[in-house]
Amino acid sequence: MNINFTLVGQAIAFAIFVVFCMKFVWPPLIGAINERQRKISEGLNAAEKAKADLATAEQNVQQELDLAKTKAAALIEQANKSANQLIEDAKSQAQAESERIRQQAQASIDQEINQARESLRAQVAELAVLGAEKILQDKVDVQKHASMLDQLAAKL
């Protein structure tokens, strides 16, 4: 066998092999590689879009949190104002109630003082009559001297 014939035979076999590979093997491999590149590219694009969406969502969340904090602060401020108003109302009602009770107590005291004065006048009148009886050693007519006793009681 001749080396030239072997080399030519191997070259022809290699050429047939290359043509066969280019016709039957390479197109599916290139298609698979292209499909993989397309999927990787889509994945990267989706990751970039997801990253952008995440940033937008985080910004929206931060805005919502700020808005919620503002609303919560406003609600707390309103609750504090309401509580202060309730306290002020309760204080004013308590003061009004204490004034009313004080006035009732003062009226009751004035009434008791008047009753004590009247009672004292009556006792003084009786003592005056008893004193006059003892002085005169005679019984004084109470009806007769009623006007005199009333005048005496009014002076006391």
UniProtKB/TrEMBL annotation:
Component of the F(0) channel, it forms part of the peripheral stalk, linking F(1) to F(0). The b'-subunit is a diverged and duplicated form of b found in plants and photosynthetic bacteria. F(1)F(0) ATP synthase produces ATP from ADP in the presence of a proton or sodium gradient. F-type ATPases consist of two structural domains, F(1) containing the extramembraneous catalytic core and F(0) containing the membrane proton channel, linked together by a central stalk and a peripheral stalk. During catalysis, ATP synthesis in the catalytic domain of F(1) is coupled via a rotary mechanism of the central stalk subunits to proton translocation. Gene3D superfamilies: F1F0 ATP synthase subunit B, membrane domain. This is ATP synthase subunit b. PANTHER family: ATP SYNTHASE SUBUNIT B, ATP SYNTHASE SUBUNIT B', CHLOROPLASTIC. Belongs to the ATPase B chain family. GO terms for molecular function: proton-transporting ATP synthase activity, rotational mechanism; proton-transporting ATPase activity, rotational mechanism. Its main location: membrane. InterPro entries: ATP_synth_B-like_membr_sf (IPR028987), ATP_synth_b/b'su_bac/chlpt (IPR002146), ATP_synth_F0_bsu_bac (IPR005864), ATP_synthase_B_chain (IPR050059).
